[in-house]
Every structure is written in C-alpha cells, then in structure tokens.
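Morning. Coffee machine broken again, so started the prediction first thing and wrote up yesterday's gels while waiting. Chain of 190 residues, entered below exactly as on the submission form.
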Amino acid sequence: MDIWQKLQRIAFIVFLLLIIGSLISFEIFGANFDLEIIRQNLKDFGVWAPLVFIFLYTTGTIFIPSTPFMVAGGILFGFKYGLLYIVIGGFLSSIIVFIISRKLGRERVENILEYKYFRKLEKYNKKLEKGAIWDLVLLRMAPIMPFNVLNILMGVSKITMKDYVIGTLLGLIPSNILTVYVGTFLTKLF
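Came back before lunch.
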C-alpha cells in the first residue's frame, strides 16, 4: 500500500469519526439549540441571510442531523423560502458527503466486499451501478438511517453520480416539505 492510499484511508476514518462524534455531541447538547438567537443573528445579515443560512445548513448537516435545521428554515423564512433554502442546502450537503466518501472510502469498501462473506452485498452493490434512483428515493423517504449514513454508504457504493443526484432530490423533497411546514406551523402557534 503506497503513502497516498494510507492517507486516503486515514482521512476517511477521521471523516467518519467526525460525523459520529458530532452526532453524539448533538444528542448530548442538542437541547441547548436556541432558535431565537439564531433568528436574531441571521437578521443581522440582511439580504445575505438566505445565503448564510444555506451555508450553515450545508456545512452543519454534514456533521449533525438536519431536522432541527429544516424546522428552523420554516420558522425563519416561512414555508416557501424555507423549503427552497433547505432543499438547496440539503442537496449540497449530501453531494459533499457523497464525494468525500467516494474519493476516500470507495476503493477500501470494494476491497472488503471481495471477501466471500460479503458476496450478497457486492451483488447489491453491482445492481446499484445499473440504476438505483428508486432504491435511493425509498431509502431517503424511509426513516431507516440518518441521511449522512446513507450519503456515506452511497458514496462508497457503485451508484452513478447521476442516479445519486436524481434519487437524492426526489427523496429529500417529501421529508423537507413536512419538516419545513412544521416549522412554519410552529410560528403560527407561538
């Protein structure tokens, strides 16, 4: 194994550990999430507030769950604009995690799947290469696993970038609509 492969392996492991650590930290400290402070800080950006929110959503959801950001989008920007900003940020976040996983972890996972114990996984992995849009849409819509775990798994799989992009956009929209609407609804209650 050359030095570049070792560095890729270490970078991928660090990336995975950062995501796991962030999820654990969010579980512990997530109750301290104060939307009013965020709302006030975003107002200070004026017309740039949507871009700042999209940037925060994109980078933040790489490491923590997206649901609080989706609700915040509805609260801060209303349904129509909140949904637009959430879809953009969620898509960008998904693509970033997918690309990082693909570049740093795919080769290693393919080597692991060559073992006889993983033949069924390798068979499914090969099916992903031939068209996986609806598989991904269903996985996105079903609350089976966190989005980042799915982004990482798809990044190391053989799914094509085109299928990943289409499946991600189609799969994100239903949950985004529902969650942003909840945020918008909460502003009517309080």
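The first helix runs from residue 3 to 29. Going to sketch it on the whiteboard this afternoon.
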